[in-house]
Amino acid sequence: MCPKKLLYLIITIILHPLASSAQINTERVMNIGRNALYFEDYILSIQYFNQVINAKPYLCEPYFFRGLAKLNLDDYLGADEDCTRAIECNPYVVSAYQVRGLARINLKDFDGAIEDYRKALKYDPENISIWHNLSLCYMEQEDYDTADATLDSLTKISPRYDKAFLLKSFVQMEKKDTAEAIRCIDHSIDLSPYDGDNWSAKAIILLQTKQYKEAEECLDQSIRLSIRNVPNYINRAMARYNQNNLRGAMDDYDRALDAEPNNFIGRYNRGLLRSQLGDYNNAIEDFNVVLNQKPDEMMAVFNRALLFEKTGDLQQAIKDYSTVLDKYPNFAYGYQKRAEAYRKTGQNKAALRDEDKLLRMALDEQFGDKSDRDDNETRTESDKDVRNFNKLVTAEDEGENKYQEKYRGRIQNNNVEIKMMPLAVISYYESEDEVNNHINYNRTIENLNKVSTSKKKLLITTRERPIDEKEMNEHFNSINRLSAEIAQQPHNYMLRFLRALDYYLVQDLYNAIDDINEAIALKDDFSAAYFMRAVINCKRLEYEKAENDYDFTRSTAADTERNSMMMAYDNVRKDLNKVIELEPDFACAYYNRACISAMLKDFIGALNDLNKAIETDSNLPEAYYNRGLINIFIGNDKQGINDLSKAGELGVAQAYNVMKRFTIAENE
Question: How far apart (Å, rounded) are the C-alpha atoms in residues 115 and 484?
């Protein structure tokens, strides 16, 4: 049976679940499902895994991968159930225990997760990720002695695994052994001195022990090495504030808020700092932002009231004081300040009422119960004691979730990467972006939209988005309809191309390529077909590399696998060469060829193509962004930063974060 007829049968089964499930090629459908999973089309991948499960319910693999997809969709109960089915089919699959462990962690079933990790270690006793997560589970349960012993086992298995010593430092802090915590984190730094997380972790310990100068030095290192620097700036601001370097603290809050404008701690603390420095109007603006996010943040309301009073807006100050006192009727200082504001506005009776209340409260405190206020110089975000209104806010552990981001698993990528913008594709769908609204014009796509029978308009985008379940069914129906039309018009290249796009959108890259090849055979000057064949083949290669954990750039010349992979990428470039030959003004063709060249470490070729893409379309933001990254990578920092600046101007928001990182590293 030919591949397209086979897929037609598969699609019929998807649309008509009562049909016989035994007829599908389960291996082929599994591969399509895993491909969809890799490209984060989780809902679509589940539909494919369902077909395999219906056909062969005794297989372990489809349950496992469906569970993995559900985990990515935050369906933790469903992930647990699917991994349980996978384990019932084959109890020796370590990955199933790992994924079920992560699902159970998210369900707060730490005992169940520990049981899974212990079972997995029987089959894979040197799996670092399992030991890592097992240690964190014990930490979540506050069983620090067992966590410490587990981490000791991990360090014996992998003595150079720096994260084990990082976790041990957390354990020692919980056990109140600061000296041992510092020793552990120093060893982690010795093992991995270029990991910014290690330096920031040490800084947090030093902040907790009021070693502010040393904490600032560690944060300087972390900022040079890290990408996610908002917490580092906020922590360094705290270190600087406690050394009376208010301007330095202000500068750090400014940097943090440039990158993350709605950061609560940054906004609140900058508001307090601006108030101390006499910048009252800007301080009010900071507290306004805080209150837009958290209208019930009474300490922000009270601070804003003080600022309104200082700027002469007494009525607004009284309104804010009253809001706070309605919430905290025993807040003495609130009555004092409102009474002062009432006096200034001539509302003497109201002032007398507040002053009488103050007198009674003073007597109650003198002769009744005394409520103690803590003497800490800072407060945590969850501290709702309004008397701490003038304290800077510090980050805090988040209860049961305080270790959540530190879990390791195949569905998590906690290291934020600086990476190039993706390939441009022809699609019907694009992620919304309020800032980057650049339209990639191409006359071939415009002509396709004129003749296409689809109600949706084709576009060229780098912001490709996965389709939802409704759209998925629409494209399956479209494949059925187009298949019937192709049977009647076998030489219609446009029908082949449109069906190829449908296949591509449901992640069946193999049948998509078959249809693209047919379209090109029927019309050898069809530039859009060459363009999409390059895209689809590139994505297929990306998936195959990830599945095989293969680094095609390694330098063994005799490596046949490498040679085969390089030839495949060369064919992708040949397709893009053809597009450029047919359409010399197609900016996205140059852009995509540059992306392929960069993948192959041909940076000069990539820069040449990005130059040409920008020459053809001077407002192509992704081209500036990628050119900026490549220039920085090869040492042309000034040109790279200029390109990133232009990309940011054109709407690529992350360009500013990357640019700031390199600018700071250069200046410090």
Answer: 53
Q: What is the rounded CA–CA span in Å between residue 167 and residue 160?
A: 14
Displacement of CA 642 from its chain's centroid (Å): 26
Residues 475 and 134: their CA atoms lie apart, in Å, by 43
Residue 511: what are its φ and ψ, rounded to 5°? -70, -30
Full DSSP string of 242-302:
TTT-HHHHHHHHHHHHHH-TT-HHHHHHHHHHHHHTT-HHHHHHHHHHHHHH-TT-HHHHH
| CA geometry: angle 292, 294, 297, nearest 5 deg | 120
d(C-alpha 423, C-alpha 571), whole Å: 16
Token readout for 659 is 């640019």
Which two tokens mark 88? Answer: 């019932």
pLDDT value at position 616?
94
Over 78-141, what HEC string results? Answer: HHHHHHHHHHHHCCCCHHHHHHHHHHHHHCCCHHHHHHHHHHHHHHCCCCHHHHHHHHHHHHHC
Tell me the C-alpha distance between 449 and 21, whole Å. 37
- Which residue's entry shows tokens 């920031």? 200
pLDDT score for 412: 28
**Tokens 């002769």, residue located:** 367
Dihedrals phi, psi of 380, to nearest 5 degrees: -90, 165
DSSP state of 400: G
Residue bearing tokens 């191409």: 442
Number of Cβ within 10 Å of residue 64's Cβ equals 24
Angle, to 10 degrees, between the axis of helix 264-276 and the axis of helix 298-310? 30
Tell me the average confidence (pLDDT) per consecutive run of 10 residues in the chain, 668 residues long: 34 32 72 88 89 92 94 91 95 94 93 95 94 94 95 94 93 92 94 89 91 94 82 92 92 90 91 92 94 91 94 94 91 91 92 86 59 60 69 58 51 45 91 64 79 80 86 90 94 93 91 95 94 93 71 48 76 94 94 92 93 94 93 86 86 73 52
- State the pLDDT at residue 369: 46
Closest CA to 107 of 88, 132, 127, 84: 84
Q: Which amino acid is at 476?
A: F
Decide if 38 contacts 44 (C-beta within 8 A).
no
CB 334 within 8 A of CB 328: yes
H helices, E strands: number in the chain: 32, 4
Contacts by 401-404, CB closer than 8 A, 24 or more apart: 403/136, 403/139, 403/140, 403/170, 404/105
Cα gap 234→203, rounded to integer Å: 12
pLDDT of residue 437: 58
Pairing of strands 425-427, 378-380: unpaired
Tokens 């990254």, residue? Answer: 629
Confidence (pLDDT) at 115 = 96
- Phi/psi for 459 (5° steps) reads -150, 165
Would the pTM of this model clear 0.90, i.e. be above it?
Answer: no
Check residue 658 and give its pLDDT: 73
The Cα 392–Cα 236 span in angstroms is: 13
List b or e across 622-631, with b for residues whose CB sees 16 or more CB atoms inside 10 angstroms: bbbbbbbbbb
Cα-Cα-Cα-Cα torsion 75, 78, 79, 83, nearest 10 degrees, comes to: 180
Strand partners, 322: none
* DSSP conformational letter for 369: P
